[in-house]
Amino acid sequence: MRHRVAGRHLSRTSEHRLALRRNMVASLFEHETISTTVQKAKEVRGFAEKLITLAKKGTLPARRRAIAMLNNRAIYAEEDGKMVKKGTVVGKLFSEIGPRYLERSGGYTRIIKLSKCRLGDGGKLVLLQLVEQAKDKTDA
User: Fold this and answer.
1) Complete domains list, the chain, with CATH
2) 82-88 and 109-117 as β-strands: parallel, antiparallel, unpaired?
3) Could you count the other beta carbons within 10 Å of the beta carbon of residue 114?
4) What is the 3-state secondary structure (H, E, C) of 34-95?
5) Tens of pLDDT along 78-123?
6) Which of 60, 69, 98, 99 is the most exposed place for a label (fewest CB within 10 A)?
C-alpha cells in the first residue's frame, strides 16, 4: 500500500533529490524553460510553484525562506568573451518572476511533451516552462 507516501524517489538518496530539485528550479528561474524527463518535471513543478508563491509576497522573511529553500546561485552571462555576474536566482525570482504573477492564483508552470527521447536510456523528454514568459523571450 502507498498510504501517506508522497513524492518520487527517482533512484536517488534524499540529499541527491533535494540537490536535484534545487538545481532544476534554479535553472528554470534563470532560463525560464528547461528540458528534462517527465518524472523530474512533475517532481520539480510543485517546488517551483511554492517558491513563486513566496516571491509574490515580496517580504524579507519570504526572501530569507526562499534563500534557505533554494540557495542563492549567481547568474552569469558572457559579454565580450568574459563571464559577468548579472545577479542571483533569488533576486530574479523576487524582482521579475514574482511580480509577473501577482494577478494569477496558481499554475505558474507548464509541461510540454516532446517527441524526442533521451539518448542514453530512452526516457521521454518534456519542456518545463514558466507560463507567462518575458516579452523579449517570446519574440526571439
Assistant:
1) 14-139 (3.90.1030.10)
2) unpaired
3) 11
4) EEEEHHHHHHHHHHHHHHHHHHHHCCHHHHHHHHHHHCCCEEEEEECCEEEEEEEHHHHHHH
5) 999 999 999 999 999 999 999 999 999 999 999 999 999 999 999 9
6) 60
Give Cβ neighbours of residue 89 (< 8 Å, ≥ 6 apart): 26, 29, 30, 70, 72, 73, 74, 75
The partner residues of 83 in beta bridges, in order of sequence, read 78
For residue 23, give the nearest of 55, 48, 52 by alpha carbon. 48
For 16-25, how does the pLDDT look when each residue is reduced to its tens digit (9 = 90+)?
999 999 999 9
Grid coordinates belonging to 109: 508552470
